[in-house]
Design brief:
The complex is a heterodimer of chains A (76) and B (338).
Chain A: H1 3-13, H2 35-46, H3 63-75
Chain B: E1 11-20, E2 25-27, H1 33-38, E3 42-44, H2 52-67, E4 76-80, H3 91-98, E5 106-110, H4 116-129, E6 135-142, H5 153-156, E7 162-171, E8 178-185, E9 193-194, E10 212-213, E11 219-220, E12 226-227, H6 229-250, E13 260-263, H7 268-278, H8 299-309, E14 318-325, E15 329-336
Parallel strand pairs in B: 4-5, 4-6, 13-14
Antiparallel strand pairs in B: 1-7, 2-3, 6-7, 8-15, 9-12, 10-11, 14-15
Helix pairs in contact in B: 6-7
The chains are: A mainly alpha (76), B alpha+beta (338).
Amino acid sequence: MKLHELAKEFEYIVQAEEGTVTVDTELDSFADWDSLAIASLLVYFDERGIGLREADFKNVRKFGDIVNLVEQYIEK
Amino acid sequence: MVAKVGVDVYHSGIKGIEYYLPEHEEQNDPIERLTAKIGINSRRIAMPNEFASDLACRAIDKLFRTLDINPNEVDFLLYCTQSPDYFLPSTSCLIQNRVGLPTSCGALDMNLGCSGFVYGLALAKGLIEAGTARNIILVTSDTYSKFINPRDKSVKVLFGDGAAATLVSRMDGPNSHIGPFEFGTDGKGAENLIVPAGGLREPSTGESAIEYEDEKGNIRSRANLYMNGSEIYNFAIKEVSHCVQSFLDTHGETIEDYDYFVFHQANAYMLEALRRKLCIPQEKFSVQLNDCGNTVSSSIPIALCREAENGQIPHGSRIMLVGFGVGYSWAVCSIKWQ
């Protein structure tokens, strides 16, 4: 999975301007994420064979944390 | 000499659609980020003394006036709702009487949500093409607002009340204008969009009216509508796109064979995700929920009616209709717009 593709999808999910999300972008606390954002991120990963769960995102603070989650899943 | 046996072949088509939205309007918070995401600025909400059957009768009255229909020529009423007036009798019987349909008219209720319009079209087509009926009024109407706890933002901002009436009639010509269809059902998803209490399995009691708060701060009771948004989104993106692709494959078609697409108007974000996944051009894809929200089984006929008024679906257009939601239940069909 390419970082820029994931960033682009995430920009769509959080309705951010294109090119504004980097690994250092700070995110809302997970409790503030809306259900559509969570669901669409899970579906996006699931369609790419990455079986993350909602609970996996609970400690996410930056976009880079999501990238790390994906990398850890792939390494497993 | 062999006698030639004549077999009557009937075809069906949509002759017209009208809809009715309650007058009372509720605004979604324009500053809330979710408002932009779901594409719903306001919704119409039925008053406490206004029920789905009232909205249905208003929609039928509009249809009668617009198409100059003689009620005596209607021989079947199909009523799709999940907000019935009573457990019994069927609300369709009450509506038959209120709008002045003849007593020779058949009438039945269907309990389906967002897939209901497409299912209703299939039933109407069957009745007409079997020679059982000639003019059918298919009415969809719901007042989900009456199930929704005002302090549950997970559903309050999405659903609006409304009704639509569609005249499906026997048509001249060599082909049917309705169909083919593809259906799907998966009751494993029932618990993800449900009003748990109020039926016979779990009657309304003082206990079922006790409110609780979920982890997102939404308040509801078991007598209120509950929706697991993540699971519903997951179902829609996976199952609906799969069903559309299967429908196209079965009939040897592609997206390019259709002039327009009217999907159930769940929310703008979900619609856009489906549109992107199925590679449907934006200009061929209906989004009609900004001022009315998700009107359940009426969302497709309301969108069709509005797109026709906007000139988006001229005479002869081939349109794909896709209904999906509570159940889970889903359906895809093709229609030719007249």
